[in-house]
TrEMBL record:
It holds the Pfam family PP_kinase_C_1. This is Polyphosphate kinase. The keyword Calcium does not apply. Gene3D superfamilies: Endonuclease Chain A, Polyphosphate kinase middle domain, Polyphosphate kinase N-terminal domain. Residues 7-114 form the Polyphosphate kinase N-terminal domain. GO terms for biological process: polyphosphate biosynthetic process. Residues 331-496, 504-662 form the Polyphosphate kinase C-terminal domain. The lineage of its organism: Bacteria, Bacillati, Bacillota, Bacilli, Lactobacillales. It comes from Lactococcus allomyrinae.
Length: 706
């Protein structure tokens, strides 16, 4: 008998998530540019997938000792996984490009055009040719593929043209033409609502590049390189220099994928050339993806940005989050003194978090500010406030994670800015990533001090806070304050592993807490038949936790999981996971909050966390999970959980065949729509209160004149 198949494969499950993103582009309830946006997001997601996840599988498949080893519990070896990955991804791409063409037709009906060069009218062609001669031609550098030219370095994800040229009396020649990285790939033809991509402009003007030569055939291609080489820290070397060396090494990554677009789809003509690519790039046929349209649909982000200037109605109306004067910079500390605050972003504004930090930076009573930073905004108000606080003489500590993937250069830049302002910077912790979201403010109060904290599920990033759903807790409870004092001392290397009161910390602390809480629910199920577990995470891949959830399900515990992305847990397996339900929400906002709940009613414990239920988060990162205690805050969190489970319109449900489907019979609202409507109600109530206050003030002034 073969090995029992207990889990889906993580990366194959992730491809199902990206399919759900593509399927959202078919949602006719969304404005047309929002539908297009999902196609761009799916392409962006897939790029990172092939830069980070796929190379690891390919590396194992290259090793004879590993290639045919089964991945535990999945029933598949690495070779089989790569074959299945290709099959699923090609299906996704077919669906994605089919929708892309459909949406272009819809835009054409609205008199907005995304054209190929051959489809331009006479006026448009003249504009494109003029742009080519003025801007593009001087920037082009063709590279011949012959003994007189060095083999070109193929840059990661840069679009290239492969050209087969011929000339009477001469041997045919082959040329690679990289698109200039300095030029925008999307070309807007002046005075029109017609757009064309750069490679199409070049294709229409080949005769001006290769004088005297004829173009026999060509295709466009794009190679993705491994961007996740192993990083082994040396405690004896400067960490900043190690990160800088790592970034140089990353540019030398091996190819993991090649995408090819051929105008007429006749790939047989290029059989010999493609075989050479396969050999030169050390790829297999399964690593080739033949695209029915322009490569790299992230170009649609730029297209949407330009089209919305004239057609803002083709996007969602701007969302105005809930805001309160109690959360203003002048009131935020007194409001926290009155009780804990729970914020659900982006439905609740992120401004209170920024106001909290800004007010702390300006207050003469502030003694110290300590904060973790993982990914921050490009023009960060968080960094600005920390620098201002330091320059004002406050003791400021920032734990900046230099190993945050694809944010390394950005974080190196911010480290220099912070240090120049006098901030004490800790460069993370050796061999671990500091992914926790924690902010501690210590203020002087009378003869003593008082601690204020912010604990969250998302980054300190005011840009992404408008698009990501996250939870924030602001509190002056002394127990949270003591915990964060201990936490920052631990991260700074000045204390042994602390005993916390209201938080648990990974590595290991969060997984141990979750396992313990699952055991408690098994106990309740055995004695009271009311065991309940709710987890909302971005991914669930920790087999340790999954096996514990299987154990709870076998005892009859009701388990509801909301998992945005990869989920390797199998549902509906008899005797294993019959009481487990898995939902996935893909919508206007990116689901990013992590919420854990155990039990129900007055016995329910609710935690918010920076950690997903993944091995990397549980064992290899510094993460924080914080239990909620304030009665009002717990009730708010319970209402959020109830909304996620009550409102299921547009929610995807996982079945035992690893398919995600929406229910034909569902609630009137999706969870995100419900939260938007609630935020709008709060905003109306605030405006009515302000109006009523102004009326009272007006009448007071009126009567005072008498």
């Amino acid at each position: 008998m073969g090995e029992e198949i207990k889990y889906f494969h993580r990366d194959l499950s992730w491809l199902l998530f990206n399919r759900r993103v593509i399927e959202k582009s078919y949602d006719e309830d969304y404005p047309i540019l929002e539908q297009l946006k999902f196609l761009a997001i799916a392409s962006n997601n897939l790029d990172e997938f092939f830069m980070v996840r796929v190379p690891a599988i390919q590396s194992n498949a290259r090793l004879r000792s590993e290639a045919h080893k089964q991945v535990a519990g999945t029933g598949m070896n690495h070779e089989e996984i790569l074959e299945e990955l290709n099959r699923r991804n090609q299906k996704n791409l077919d669906l994605q490009y089919l929708r892309f063409q459909e949406l272009l037709e819809h835009l054409k009906e609205k008199k907005v055009y995304f054209k190929r060069y051959d489809d331009l009218n006479e006026v448009e062609r003249a504009l494109a040719d003029n742009y080519f001669e003025r801007i593009v031609l001087p920037a082009l550098t063709p590279i011949g593929l012959d003994s007189y030219h060095a083999t070109p370095k193929i840059e990661n994800q840069l679009i290239h043209l492969f050209l087969h040229l011929q000339k009477e009396g001469k041997e045919d020649t082959r040329v690679i033409l990289p698109l200039p990285v300095q030029l925008n790939r999307l070309v807007a033809l002046a005075g029109t609502e017609t757009f064309i991509n750069l490679e199409e402009v070049i294709q229409g003007n080949f005769d001006k590049i290769f004088l005297g030569w004829q173009l026999k055939r060509y295709f466009t291609f794009r190679v993705t390189l491994d961007q996740n080489p192993d990083f082994e820290e040396d405690p004896d070397d400067d960490i900043i220099e190690q990160i800088e060396d790592y970034l140089v090494e990353r540019r030398r990554g091996l190819p993991s994928r090649i995408e090819i677009s051929i105008r007429d789809g006749n790939f047989d003509e290029f059989k010999h050339d493609l075989e050479k690519f396969e050999h030169e790039l050390c790829l297999k046929k399964r690593d080739f993806y033949f695209i029915k349209g322009p490569l790299d649909l992230t170009i649609l982000f730029g297209f949407i940005s330009q089209v919305k200037v004239q057609h803002s109605e083709w996007l969602f109306s701007p969302f105005v989050p809930n805001q309160s004067d109690d959360w203003s910079e002048s009131n935020i500390f007194s409001t926290i003194d009155s009780g804990d605050i729970l914020l659900h972003h982006p439905y609740d504004s992120y401004l209170p978090v920024l106001n909290f930090l800004s007010a702390a930076a300006k207050s003469p009573d502030t003694i110290a500010i300590k904060q973790t930073l993982y990914r921050v905004a490009e023009d960060s108000r968080v960094i600005e406030a920390l620098c201002a606080a330091s320059k004002a003489g406050k003791q400021v500590t920032a734990v900046v994670e230099l190993k945050a993937r694809f944010d390394e250069e950005n974080n190196l830049k911010w480290v220099k800015v912070l240090e120049e302002a006098g901030v004490y910077v800790i460069y993370g912790v050796p061999d671990l990533k500091t992914h926790s979201k924690a902010l501690l403010v210590v203020k002087k109060v009378g003869e003593g001090t008082k601690s204020y904290v912010h604990l969250g599920t998302g980054n300190y990033n005011e840009s992404t806070s408008k698009m990501y759903t996250d939870i924030s807790l602001l509190s002056a409870n002394p127990a949270y304050g003591r915990d964060l004092v201990s936490f920052f001392n631990f991260v700074a290397g000045y204390s042994e592993l602390p005993n916390y009161e209201r938080i648990v910390v990974s590595p290991f602390g969060i997984s141990m807490m979750i396992m313990k809480k699952i055991d408690e629910q098994i106990g309740r199920q055995m004695t009271r038949q009311d065991g309940y577990i709710f987890l909302k995470v971005n991914a669930i891949t920790s087999k340790l936790i999954i096996d514990k959830l299987y154990e709870a399900s076998q005892k009859g515990v009701k388990i509801q999981l909301i998992v945005r992305g990869a989920c390797v847990l199998k549902v509906g397996n008899k005797g294993q996971s019959e009481t487990i339900e898995v939902r996935s929400i893909v919508g206007r906002f990116l689901e990013h909050s992590r919420i854990y709940a155990f039990g129900s009613g007055k016995h329910q414990e609710i935690w918010i966390s920076s950690a997903d239920t993944m091995t990397r988060n549980m064992d290899n990162r510094i993460e924080i999970a914080a239990r909620l205690y304030d009665k009002q805050v717990v009730n708010q969190a319970r209402e959020i959980i109830q909304a996620f489970t009550k409102y299921d319109k547009k929610t995807f449900f996982l079945n035992s065949d690893e398919l995600y489907q929406t229910h034909l019979i569902h609630s009137e609202l999706s969870p995100q729509t419900y939260f938007v409507k609630e935020a709008e109600k709060c905003l109306v109530e605030v405006q009515e209160e302000v109006y009523a206050t102004k009326r009272v003030s007006f009448f007071k002034r009126l009567f005072n004149r008498r």
